[in-house]
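Lab notebook, entry 430. We have the chain sequence and a SMILES string for flavin-adenine dinucleotide, and the next step in the workflow is to get a structural model of the bound complex before anyone spends time on docking refinements. Request logged below.

Task: model protein plus flavin-adenine dinucleotide, output structure tokens.
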Amino acid sequence: MNRYAVIGAGPSGLAAARALHTRGITVDGYEASHGVGGLWDITNPRSTMYESAHLISSRTTTEFAEFPMRSRVDYPGHRVLKEYFDDYAEHFGLVELFRFDTRVTRLEPRDGGWDLTSAGPTGNETRWYAGVVLANGTLAEPNVPTFAGEFSGELLHTSAYKSPEQLKDKRVLLIGAGNSGCDIAVDAVHHASSIDMSVRRGYYFVPRYLFGRPSDTLNQGRPLPARIKQAVDSRVLRAFTGDPVRFGFPRPDYRIYESHPIVNTLILNHLGQGDLRIRPDIARFEGTTVHFRDGSADDYDLVLLATGYTLDYPFVDREHLHWRGASPRLFLNVFPASFNGLYVMGMIEASGIGWQGRYEQAELLAAYLSAVEEDPARAARFRERVTGAPWPDVTGGYRYLGLDRMAYYVNKDAYRGAVRREKSALEVSA
Ligand SMILES: Cc1cc2nc3c(=O)[nH]c(=O)nc-3n(C[C@H](O)[C@H](O)[C@H](O)COP(=O)(O)OP(=O)(O)OC[C@H]3O[C@@H](n4cnc5c(N)ncnc54)[C@H](O)[C@@H]3O)c2cc1C
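Result returned:
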């Protein structure tokens, strides 16, 4: 029986360990932090969580289907989620599969498998594995753009933001308006002396509740075709949240769902109350002054970059993951077409894919690896299918913005459908 390594004990690594373990595949897990939960553990040194963070997708669309949360609230906070992952790992006997405080520092191919070098409490160690599952997260390595000039005040990326104390009595400028950026802007309204938000493009703001229910639980049946869903949902949003252009946001130059929507309408309420201002793109920094592209300027104490994250697999040479542009090019975001023994979990960004979507990735991987063990001809047929036929379209008919952060974006229904179909095809016996 081959032995496989899993890097990371966040939701994706736990899902992988669970799915492989269920199939009787031997797994060694490596986790750089002291416990499970990934970025949901605010005490994990690599966590990009902050005190006010809650789920953005709702509980029932996010949790693992086989392990419902004990919490009954719709959008639990990060501490509840950390407990959830502790319970999950404990319940399925996953904790003992992992070595904690042990960081993977290097993967080198050898003899059809991988030498994995790790640094842990007992020093450095190298072990050979038939395959390695990379589940080290996608939201850890800050994307820091360059700006003209220099800012002499405090400059932070949101990855370093933990608590509103950091904003106290400061004139804050947030650059970017993703989901974290909008959460932090709301914190700033209550703690900073002023808060401005500089944005380049417009956004779609989805309320957490529509018709009295978590908005992502509506329309869960058969997915509507992209064009129809875009038309219907834009109308619903116009009716519920109005036009963000009224509050100073630029008009989006794309249709809804072609970029990740912002699930936050508090920000609009605060704009309506005059608690924060929308500013245009940055032209340059000069001391503590920020010059904007419309010729206006203001002084700030703190500039917070809500500019997102870049994918990073620092322990393995890029050629092995077939990088193309801003992300590796992998079959269903999991399998390198070379089938070199590396597998990636959690490299999916999608509206509403949840941890169950990540678990289904893991089930497909587990189905493949058990075919490798038990029925090599079936595993070979899967590899032929991956290398010899066109790959499924997982866009769901949406034309995603050509931005780096959208490089591995998928439509949840199209993606989950494709994963399930591939798994069924893989499991059809000879
Ligand atoms: C504020 C915020 C809100 C979010 N809200 C939602 C939401 O509502 N719904 C949703 O589905 N997603 C949400 N996400 C996305 C989130 O990324 C996923 O929910 C989930 O955490 C991804 O799990 P993961 O296991 O892939 O990565 P992570 O949770 O990042 O876990 C990766 C793990 O790998 C470990 N690791 C990294 N490098 C190494 C190494 N070299 N060796 C050993 N271990 C290593 C890390 O310590 C970490 O524990 C949110 C993210 C943030 C930041």
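Notes for the group: The mean pLDDT is 96. Worth checking against the assay data. The CA atoms of residues 325 and 404 lie 8 Å apart.
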